[in-house]
Each structure stands twice: as structure tokens, then as C-alpha cells.
């Protein structure tokens, strides 16, 4: 949401509680009073939905003289056969008999008093209104759209989006089901969120009797996840604050530290003059490390760059230098917030190497100290962290260096962070 208000974009009409938004007045229906227009359209829809006069259907009854009132119809009219033929008039009258079921609300499932979002649909238009109380800022309407069209009317209680279907708002027509759909978007501006965005899908359907239209089911496939077999003897695990591995689902609050450890199994032999280094770590919302979006926490050959954003992100010391612990402040991807939930599954992916005990600009664990605004190595000389503000040299093996000192691994958590 914007933090600067350049002035109200509202024009007061004669009604004490009616406003018009200049930002959308030219792209939709311009009415003097949106509440009166809403009530008028409700009346029009209500009249259209009233059942017609009852039809008298002639029934064929049994002629056995038993007095049974059970109706019998000529079986030939319902006999399956190849091809198509018109239905007899008496069958049409029977199928078109007005329903005595309770009449649904004019605005569909989202309509009714006290509802936060209401929808009205007619032959050539779609009306949507949403209560102002949903939002916490007075400029919320600037980020609210019906498809691609902005709010064009407003009162003290509601924002209105009144549009004809011929308007280029992104209305989607489904021919098979004879329906019109669109999405109500709310996407606050800015890098951070103070209110959750949402996408509210809605539509209008025209109903027909079963003999007029067929229904065609659509099969949708799912995604099956298979655990990846580790290609190295390194393990990347999620842990709690006490250093215990998290084996089940874990929910984090935004900003709360999430703990991780990269290590070799306890029974793996290693030289006493080696150390484990984490060169790069990033998070994705998908199990595929090449998916987007992604957020990098560790980069530049061992610099905890997310530590410049939050103090929760840092390398942590441990009993063994062949195990590297670190924490990252919990986060979510703004563009992937679900309309029904603010939670996301995150996957951590890391590039890990083994090297000498003495850190170098190519292999290190550097934390950012906000007090001194300097980088500090977890165990060694801080001078190796100087390059964290620029570009650190790659840890690729060179001619005179033993290759095993710079062995690289890419590890990903097999279970998502919830």
C-alpha cells in the first residue's frame, strides 16, 4: 500500500454518502448513485427469475380400471436410438415445468446483507461491490481491480465495480457452460505487506434444462512428488532451536528464525584438518531448485547476505567444524500468497564444499555485524570477508590444489518448510 496520500480522489455528489472515483469513471458505467443502480438491477434480476404461468401437462394413465393414479408415458418417446430427433411437445412441456424450489439470491452465493463481496449479473453486465471494512487504508481502492478494470464508484460503505461485459476487463466466456467469469484482484503496492493480497474468482452461469445442453467433464492430472536419492554423503536438515532434527510438519511465524544444519553422517570418515563450508543457499516455493521465484540467503562463497536484512539470519558455531549450522528469518513470497491462506511451503537448497580448516575468500562463513557494519568470519580471520561487499573468488580447484579440498555438493531439503 502507498504510505503517501496525495489527496482524496473522490468527488462528493448531492447524496451525503455517495462518491465517484475519477480513476475509473471513464472505463465503466457512470451512474449518479451506485446504491440506487444496485437496487434497480436487483429488481430487474428478481423479475427475470420469477417463474412463468404453470403449464398443464397431459398425462397418460393406466386404462386397467384399477383406479391407480400412477402416470404412464409412451415408452417410444424415451427409447434410446441412433441419431437425433425432436422431442414431442408434451415432453417439452413436462421438462419445462417451472420449479417450485426456493429461489436463490439474486447475487449468487456471495450476495446478501452483511456479505463482504456481492455480485450481480445480467445479460450484458456484471456488478461487483465490496465492503470498505475489508481494508485498513482509505486508498485501498487504488489497488483493487475487476480483472484489469479499476473501482469506478464508491459510497461510505462500499467500493463498486460496475462494468458492461463488452468492456475490456478480462471477462472470460465458457461456451460449453454458457458462463461469464472474472477475478477480483487486490494487490497492495510496495515491497512489503501490511495487508494480505487476494484474488477472488467469481462467475455467472446461465442454467438450461438437461435436454438442451450436455456436460463435458474435464480430467485434471495431479503432481506426484518422489523423494530424491542423495548423490553425496552430506545431509541438510531442518532443526529446532535446541538442535534437534524436525521430522514432521513445522509452522513458522513471519520473522521467526528457521534453523538448519549441513553435515556429514557421524559414521563418515574425514580428515581432522577439514572444514565444511556453505557457499550458497536459496529458498523456493517449489521442490525444483530451478523454479521461480527464489530468495537467496547465503551467496558470494559463504556470505550471509540475508543478515543485512534481519538479525535472525546468521551462521552458528557448533561442536564440529564438519557440521555447519545457520538460521534464516522466516518469510513468504509476496507474489504467491494464496487468497485462502497466508501460509506457504518453502524449500531450502544449498551448495556445500569441503576445504581446509583455515578459511579463505573462496571458502568461509561470514556474518554481518549491524553494530559495526562489518563482516566477521565465524571461526577465522575477518579479512577473508572483505569481498562480501563486492565479488568473492570462486572456490573451483586450481592446478596445484588437491581436488578433494574443493569438492562441491548441491543439497536440498527433501521435506518442505511449512
TrEMBL record:
Residues 120-373 form the ZP domain. One of its GO terms (cellular component) is extracellular matrix. Residues 57-83 are annotated as: Disordered. The keyword Disulfide bond applies. Residues 73-83 have a biased composition (Basic and acidic residues). One of its GO terms (biological process) is egg coat formation. Pfam families: Zona_pellucida. The keyword Disulfide bond applies. Residues 1-18 form the signal peptide. It comes from the Eukaryota. PANTHER family: ZONA PELLUCIDA GLYCOPROTEIN 3D TANDEM DUPLICATE 2, ZONA PELLUCIDA SPERM-BINDING PROTEIN 3. This is Zona pellucida glycoprotein 3c. The lineage of its organism: Eukaryota, Metazoa, Chordata, Craniata, Vertebrata.
